[in-house]
Write a structure and sequence with these properties.
The chain has helices at 2-5, 7-24, 26-32, 38-95, 125-128, 140-148, 163-173, 178-183, 219-227, 229-239; strands at 102-110, 114-121, 135-136, 150-153, 190-198, 202-211. The chain is an alpha+beta fold and 250 residues long.
């Protein structure tokens, strides 16, 4: 039934099989050889069928290559979409002349259960490194910001000078495990965290500007920048980030 359904594509192959059979089976052979110029006709039909079969083969091969090319283009498009938030984070970082002691990260919420980092930048390669792929929605300064909308932290103790005092101060300001603090690559002393919303009413992410210095620049400028056109574009890029946060940073 499939052969009949696709006869336009398969008739060439059928003739290539059928012509030798006609000369092999005694009953059909007697009828065929009675036809005038039967050898010429058979060769003509065989060559025609062979040409048709090869055309279909080339056509299908071309279609397969085209599908493969489209799949590659789709993969590149997804990759570009995923990279947009990180590029915008870099723009923010450079716009405020942040330095080797600073870092900017965007965490997108998923399933209202945890955060996934979708963009990060720092001139310091150690602070830019990846780590955890997701964060609980209710812990740390990002969890605090998710509830309070904005969090500003300044003048935390220097971890390398007094580890216990640093941990004590951080735990007083947010819910976070001591071992998690010890495992952080960047023991920041100041933070500006802001919750980002889509269309003004759908919280989707938290942006964190942090520094190992004891204070940041005027955080009012950060807020104004994120409330303006740049912030809206950043939110749009986060919203369109597909697949959500895969291959993200930490």
């Amino acid at each position: 039934m499939q052969l009949l359904k696709h006869w336009k594509e398969t008739w060439g192959s059928l003739l290539i099989i059928l012509i030798p059979l006609l000369y092999t089976i005694e009953y059909t052979k007697n009828y065929v050889i009675k036809l005038p110029y039967h050898w010429i006709l058979s060769i003509f039909l065989f060559v025609w069928a062979w040409i048709q079969t090869n055309r279909n083969f080339v056509s299908k091969k071309g279609l397969t290559n085209k599908i493969s090319s489209l799949e590659n283009e789709n993969g590149m498009l997804k990759s570009n979409l995923e990279s947009i938030p990180e590029n915008m984070v870099k723009i923010f970082y450079k716009s405020f002349n942040l330095g080797n002691e600073d870092r900017v990260t965007v965490y997108r919420v998923k399933d209202n259960e945890f955060f996934i980092p979708v963009g990060r930048f720092s001139d310091n390669p150690n602070y830019k490194k990846s780590g955890r792929s997701k964060y609980p929605i209710d812990t740390g300064f990002i969890g605090k910001c998710w509830i309070e909308e904005e969090v500003i932290i300044r003048n935390l103790p220097n971890y390398h000078k007094n580890q216990e005092k640093y941990i004590e101060h951080v735990k007083k300001k947010c819910d976070i495990d001591e071992n998690v603090i010890k495992g952080l690559k960047m023991k920041s002393r100041s933070f500006y965290c802001k919750r980002l919303t889509f269309n003004g009413d759908e919280p989707i992410a938290v942006v964190v500007i942090e520094s190992v210095n004891n204070s940041l620049q005027d955080t009012t400028q950060y807020n104004q920048f994120l409330e303006g056109p740049f912030g809206k574009s950043l939110v749009e890029s986060i919203k369109n980030n597909l697949p959500i946060g895969e291959g993200g940073t930490n």
